[in-house]
Fold this protein.
Amino acid sequence: MTEYVGKAMPRYDGIGQVKGQTKFVDDFVLPGMLYAKALRSPVHRGLIRGIDFTAAKNTPGVVGVVTADDIPGAKRFGACGDQPVLADEFTAYLGEEIALVVAVDEDTCMEGIEKIKLDIEEQQPVFDMFEAMKPDAPLVRPDLKSNLWDYGSGMTTRVMYIGDVEQGFAEADLIVEGRYQTGEQDHSAMEPMVSVAYFDEAERLVIHTHSQCLYFQLGQLAAIFNLPMSRIRYVGGVVGGGFGGKNHIHADHLAGLAAIKFKRPVKYRYSRREDLLYSTKRGVFILEYKTGIKKDGRLTANHIKLWHDSGAYGGFSPYGVEKCSMFASGPYHIPNTRIDGQCVLTNKAGSSSMRGFTIMNGQFPMEMQMSKIADTIGMDPWELRFINAWRDGDIGASRYVVRGAGALEAMRGAAEVHGIELPEHLLAMSSRGR
Amino acid sequence: MKQILSFILNGSPVDVIVTPTETLLDVLREKLGVTGPKRGCDDGDCGTCTVLLDGEPVRSCLTIALTVAGREVLTVEGLSTDGDLHPLQKAFHEHGAFQCGFCTPGMLMSAKALLDHNPTPSRTEIREYMSGNLCRCGSYEEIIEAIQVVAAGEYAPSGGKE
Amino acid sequence: MKKKGVGMACVLHPTGNKGAGDPSNAAIQLKPDGTLVLLVGAVDLGQGSTTILRQFAADLMEVPIEHVFASNFADDFAPLSLGSFASRVTLIDPHAVENAAEDLKKKIREYASDLLEAHPDDLEYKEGKVFVKGAPDRSMTLAEVGGASMFGGGADPALLVGTGAWQPARFHPHDPETGAMPAVGAISFGACVAEVEVDTETGMVDVTKLTQVWEVGKAVNPLLVRQQINGGLHPGLGTTLTENSYPYYPNPDWAPENFSDYALPTFLDYPEETLWGIEEVPHPAGVKGAKGFSEGSTNGPPPAIMAAIHDAIGIWIDEYPATPEVILRALEAKEASG
């Protein structure tokens, strides 16, 4: 009997892909289909005073508009449930969706949007995390008490520790410190955000989605539409690249609301410009590391302070701080580790998950520390990592007990593939024990 | 002002009513149901909409539809003949030269144009010629490999695999 | 002047999600002709989850893989999966498929017990057949079982669907004292070696050779593992050197609006030599030792490239992207400080 697990096999659905037959969401064009486009906030932070849709509605080809008043159910969504489906009182980032214009084509939608008279009072935005943390800083949103994320009972610093860092620093022969910043990055899947919604013959709402997580999002959509889950046929499974960006609902709720209001098929399709500017992103981390080392290269302590720019809403960012903290000391055994993490709201488009989600934001500074330590103590960078790499049974600040450790194996493999000869004593080490 | 546009699409003549501002990509995808070419940016930056116009690769999102009157347009749908996959399609599939597949129709058309002009390109020539097609899944290495094996004749109709 | 440097990094990526539950389901239906339909909730984003879960299903049901149709098109009856993120599918969903396969085999034994006139416990399933232990000639093929279940004949009709679910651990809140949060199913490990050429006139960094090797537990499909190693390099390389949604961070104005200004790596930006490798340390939590890793290949390139830049020009660049402007300013500052 053939064993298939372990065998190199081409993609099961690959023939459709190379023939161009795979149907992505934007490939669905339905008879009588309408298009929707969003009126987006022209300011970073504002209070909505009033909106006059008269001229927009009178534009030939415009079928109508959708506002927050048209939402049958929950007015807020997102992983933290704090993001307005459509803004009605305030906007908290440039480009936030306020209303939809629905028309026969996208050009007509844009023509209608230009004719909307939006009365919005621009307010002083706050962009810098450290400004936002100050007690007298303007609030990113009027519904907040503080721009720092509350992890419960007013806890705004998410602490994780093992051992005692002060004792670890006392044991150290030297200390290396550094401050790091990781960049704001867009997912840039080749397939921009898009959704198609319509009612089928049984009066069920059908949504063609590129969701990465159908059940994660189906509940949110059912709440927004005030429909039982069984009345929504959520069809997914073909995604033109996700990279974490399609963990957040970007278009399904908008297409769905328009289809519900006008009882016709509706497509909401982000232009690349909209996608680059207004979709969720990988948010910036700023991290301060203080690492204690013995002269022989053993790590004794690591104290990390980190701040994550969440943008205007929570999204996955509060969890992102926790996830980053869990492994911000990299694959290394450090008996004394402490992480103080804060998730900060600012007037920017929301941060979200992206490939390497918040783990890479901790691996970069830790590896920079390791490179600097090797440089400082005059040790080969491979040796420093081999000495400290996790073995089975090691435990870090997350308290996850390491099983199936493989850092030594990965390093040995990389050296071999790259053509670097490692000394015998490193090759002899094992992840199974120290 | 609407006009009738006549051209040869994947070997067959088509007539379609278009406006002067419509792009070839609009007409193919929205009017003719030819959805192989993808709308990745609508700016000419990403290459997912690449088709061959009289054998030359063009961005269909930057091509005004009326300019293709009387000319031959080849999309990914016209790449396989009588159900047989084109050697590039076979190579892309078997060498894992795509992940999500969204850039694949454009990649295949650029790769075909490359091999039509230069049947035995070097690695550097492949990298340069293909550099206008973006792939966020990062399948560049596998695409280069797939083009190289086709250039080496591995999927040639006679004597090759399958 | 072009200066060369080499750097390395060792990184990890956890597989699976937070402790708030991390479930996946799967279902396998027996068709009247003996073929199988595998339904999974994991979304195939191009990473090939449907392909590898079908490989697991074929092995577990001991049938030729051509007999397994697989679908991830969630629809009216779709097995739940939390989703395709957190590199979770390769660790978690195979357990769901395994449980679904066990359930289907049990249902096949129960259904066949009438027809084979034997107690279900005395029946055994192997290689697409169910037979009486010790009397292998008293057997039915999957096609015979499937046909009977559909059309009845001498037997009662039945819907033979095996279902399975799995999650790594039950939810437990984090410890309020230590903040401990062991919310992860497994960890994968990667190492990256990068070689660069830094042009001190233009500030441009050219990554000329880059190797990534990942320890993945068990490479379920090496062709797809290779894709994931080379694939993660794309956003990793981009964020290190060119991609920046907020060039004037923390101010979000002047954000790039198109791919001319938001510079994704092209064929020419990938290293001239892009090398990869796979290591396997079977993980105790995975089916056949498999665990996920695919996000991780984005984690190694930034620190490896920065270490290489330091090797080339003697400057630690502590933030990315290290655009030509950042490099030139760093070189100027170094010169100014003597």
